[in-house]
Amino acid sequence: MDFETTGLNHRIARPLSVGWVGIRKGGIVLSEAGYTRVRHRDAIPSEAIAIHRLVPEDVAEAPLVNVVGQRLSEALDGAILVAHGAHHERAMLRRCGIRWAKRDTIDTMRLAWSLDRLEGRAPERDYTLAKVARRHGLPVRRAHHAFGDALTAGAVLLALAVRLERLGRSRAIDLLKLGRP
């Protein structure tokens, strides 16, 4: 899952769009994927517009945050949340009326850091989604678009899981522990 928001400070940022993909049995399931914008009527900071390319007109008539929350609640039913920089996504879920536990979350940024440590490598300086994806030979799909980033984060999770499997650490409980935000 990935949210595009009005800013990086999760304490004050508001969601502008959200994208998600399903992951089952080692693959991305596009039939369980979705994308929606989120209604926002206040001014959108120019920095956010420059990054996400969402202008006020794009989100003025989008579904209300509580409607988006209901949709996300259905999509997340029985799932483990996977996100890159998951603290931000968990904060946006709260804005949508959903409380999500850390224990049910895999942060692919943290998982990439944990893999580096387990393989004896010094931590990288940059664990952005694009950098982690490229380090593992993956394409970056529409950076800074909620669906593109959700798709990239899903692919990153699968690539990291393959590497962790070689270390005997690929069970869901291992991924949850190593990727805990």
Explain what this protein looks like in three dimensions.
The chain has 181 residues and is α+β, with helices and mostly antiparallel strands. A three-stranded antiparallel sheet has the order 1-2-3. Strands 4-5 form a two-stranded parallel ribbon. The model has no long low-confidence stretch (mean pLDDT 95). It is built from eight helices and five strands; from the N terminus they run E-E-E-H-H-H-E-H-E-H-H-H-H. The chain is globular.
Mean pLDDT: 95
Q: Class by helix and strand content?
A: alpha+beta
Which stretches are poorly predicted, pLDDT < 50 over at least 5 residues?
none
Q: How many E-type strands?
A: 5
Biggest sheet descriptor:
3 strands, antiparallel
Strand content: 15-25%
Number of helices: 8
Secondary-structure element order, N to C: EEEHHHEHEHHHH
Radius of gyration: 16 Å
Question: How would you concisely characterize the structure shown here?
Answer:
43% of the residues lie in helices and 17% in strands. A hairpin with a 2-residue loop joins strand 2 and strand 3.
Write the layout of secondary structure elements.
Blueprint: E1 2-5, E2 15-24, E3 27-37, H1 46-52, H2 56-59, H3 65-76, E4 81-83, H4 86-95, E5 105-107, H5 108-118, H6 129-135, H7 146-165, H8 172-178
Parallel strand pairs: 4-5
Antiparallel strand pairs: 1-2, 2-3
Helix pairs in contact: 5-7, 6-7
